[in-house]
Structures are given as C-alpha cells and as structure tokens.
Amino acid sequence: MNQKLFIYQLLPRLFGNSASTNKINGSIEENGTGKFNDISDTVLQEIKANGYTHVWYIGVLAHASTTNYTAYGLPAEYPEIIKGKAGSPYAVRDYYDVDPDLAVNVPDRMVEFEALIRRTHAAGLKVIIDNVPNHVARNYHSVCRPEGVKDFGEGDNTSQAFSPRNNFYYVPGQALEIESPLRRTTGPAYNEIPAKATGNDCFSHKPTRFDWYETVKLNYGVDYLNGKQGHFNPIPDTWVKMRNILLYWAEKNVDGFRCDMAEMVPLAFWRWAIPQVKDKFPGIIFLAEIYNPSAYRNFLADNTFDYLYDKVGLYDTLRDVSCGYRLSSDITFALNDVGDIQHRMLNFMENHDEQRVASDFFMKDGTKGKAAMIVSCCVGTNPVMVYAGQELGEKGMDEEGFSGRDGRTTIFDYWSVDTLRRWNNNGLWDESQLTGEEKELQEFYRRLITLCNGETALADGLFYDLMPANYDNQEFDSTRLFTFLRSNKKDLLLMVANFDSRVRECTIQIPEHAFTFFEIADTGKGMLKPLLHVENKELPFSSDFPPRISLDPYSGEIYRIVYAL
Fold it and tell me: What is the CATH number of the domain that holds 344?
C-alpha cells in the first residue's frame, strides 16, 4: 500500500518554547525561544503516533533578527530592515547557516540541527525544510559558505539596473529609503547605495511598509523592466548558486524542500535545477508554494515539482463553505478544477500564512473545522498538512509585537504559543495540562490521519463524487452537506461532512454507476460501520430502507459499507 503523506509543520522557535512571559515586542532574553534540542525523541514519537509521515521545520535557515550574535562572528544586524525582534524566517541572511536562536550552543548550531535530522529519521519521520529562492535578507552575507563559494552580489556591476551576470537588481544612483522604518537608537544606520530591488518585485529605491522591505530580489536572468525578457544562455550565476545550495542541504539528508513563492522564480530554473538534485538524491521531494492555477500543470511537468499548494482552490472553498459564504456543492467545482492533478495538490486548513481555524477571523472554535478536515484529508491520495497547534484548537489571537492580533501565530516575534506550551509541559509532551476539549480535538485529528493511512481505500483508492446524484434528493441538503465515496475496488468507504451549525440528518443515494466504476457488487442490503467516531451506532440498510445518517454540527463521519451476501 502506498503511503499518503501527512506533513506536520512547526516553527522550532515557537514549538519548543516553555517560557510564559510573552512580553509584547519582547527580546529573546525576555520571552525565550525554542531550540532544536527541544524537539525531543518523545515529541517526535508522538508526532509519528499521530499519523504524520513528514515534519516541515520552518525557520531553520539563518535569517535576519535583532539579536546580537557578533560575539560568535556573525554580522551585525539592523533593526530598521527587520520585521519584528525575531525577524522573518523568509529573510534569509545566510543560505549555508542555521538560525543561532535555535541552538543551545551557538557555535554548535549546525551539529544540533544535524542531530535533529537524525532524531526525526529515527522516529520514522522525514524532514522537509524551506528553500527561499526568490529573495534574501536586505543585508545578506554568508559567513558559513563552503570554501571557494562566492557570495551573492560579490562581483555584481552595481551601475547596471539589470545584468544577467548580476545576482541582484539595482536602482543605480539612488540610496535606499524605507517608509516608516524602525529607527535605530544606537550604532550606525543601515545604508544601501545603490538601492537593490525589493523581494516582492518592487523595483524602487523607496519600498513602502507594505512591501517586503526587509528583503531583496534575486536575479535569475529575467529583465523585469523590459518585458520580462529571459536571459538564460549562458546559465545565470544565480542559477548555479541556488542549485548548489539545494545540493548542500540534500547532502545533509533532508528529504524535501518546500519552495517559498516558487512562481516568482522562472520556471526555466526549476526545470534545470530540480532534475539535477533528484538525479543525485532519488526520492527527495519538491513542494511549491504557488497561487496561480494557470501555471499549475507547467510546474508539475518535466520532472520538476512533486506537489503544489492547493490554496486558491480547495482551501479557499472549504473556508468559505465552513463560514457559510458558499454552498457545499462548490467543493465539487474546486476539485474538478484540479481533477487530473489532484493527487499532486497539498491540502491544508492552516499554515503560518493563514489565519487559525479557531481564530475570531475564521470559525472561532477549532472543533468547527472538523468537517473541512474530513474533506481535506479524505478526498484524494494527495498529501495533507497540519500546522502545529491546529490539532489543539490554537486561536492565534495573541498580540505578539510586530504581528498584531490578526488570527495568525507570529513568525516575526519571540513568543510562546499557549496550547503548544501546555502540551510541551516542560518537555514531557503529555496531556496533563490540556483541556478536555483540546484532548478531544487532538484525538479526532489522530483518528482521522491514522485512518487515512490505515485504510487502503483512503491511501490508495479512487474517488467518486456523490453530490450530483443527490442534488434532487429531498433528504439531502447539498448546500450544507458534502458526500463522496473512496474505494480500492475491494473496500468501499462513504464520507459525509456537515458544514451546518446544527445537527443534520440525511439519506444518501448511491447511483449504480458508482458500483460499476469501483467494480463492486451491490447486494442491496448491509451495514454502515462508523470508522471515525467508533462510538456511533452501526446503521443497517436495504434497498427499501436506506440508512438515515445523523451528523453533528461542523463534523462528519467515515463509514465502511459492508454488503450482506
């Protein structure tokens, strides 16, 4: 049986932090930080037992922060070009280094990360880290690059706005001016002359506070100011540097890369670089953060990306359906849009960029995300991702500092997350400090995820949408319910999700075509056996008496259809 990928995403800086001070805009000394070593054998075994196959560690790469590590030979930082005290994990200051915040002993930081890779593998899990190819920290400077490797920007002709031989884009003759920067109180101010283009394709020396002003755009040979002409022959220097960075981390036995804003980098680069990495490291996976559906199939072709974010399709639809803004039947259309590539789409209901399900801006209660998770996990063989704390109903409603009360857990500030801190329980990683509701939700996630890899019909099977067959069913509300079948042509499973705020009862019509499609005989009578909520009653049925299914609000069930002989 093939294994369905379940990715547990966590930010080590937050995940292992047991400190509870949580001072707004607090420093690392005031608020503390999680370490690589906090991700112990104990918690990794818990993650494995909860059904996950991969851990995506974000914030591993060394990124700009306001914490001073000059005593360890690291460059001085400039608060005016950093978002928050801890800084963005996506403003990388050294592609060949790991974040010193995460080390117990800063000089041993890489050794400690390599030990985390080994612990993760020993627990039976695989490791994904970020590749951030589009932009770097404003003051990028690699002190850990291997001998003989030239730094980004070293040798650039800064008098040219664009040259295919440059690593950066420039605004010749203009000094950088950042709108409303954080003013430095001591030490020299940051100066950049000429200004470099900002990471979000802002080719001005005056990026605003709404731009990614803490980053600079890398030059892959695309002349953005002249019709986006590509200059890819000879191979641009940036291509070679980034390929070598991917190989460097692959050699450390990471199992995959989540490529940040992959569509902002020319597809030609990915088609050139990824096959080279896969040739040397068979089995390594590449996951693209991408938001342009018209580009999906191109990014999956030619041995490039293995999986893509399904944000603008399934995520957006499930969010709107959960909130009552759209009909549940719209899920069918979202799935149809990626029907031929559904097995290569990454499903999720939370990540570090999106608002928490339990936040005031979404469902206000993590238990109300159950219906969406059942659909997200069960519609296909494709991978699914859960963000640390999601399974505990974390609200993300703290006001941490740079990150305000926006329903997201900060990636910019030194902080600890209430639900994760209590689960951590000073390294015990047990349930003793969790509420009854949190324990119930965690158990729901565990059951759902382990079912998906324990049932061949879910891990490997085909999908059959039952919505069209039930549009005219007077005992099925296609505006608030969603139902489908999965089968490996042996076992037949029925999924039903209720997106309504009240208990709903329904009967479901299964057309004869479904049995033909799955090559399964319909004897006309049998039993529905609940698999997700095993405490629910089994439901007998026959051709004359279809089962009447009762569904809790914002929840659902997975049934095994067992036909009598």
Answer: 3.20.20.80
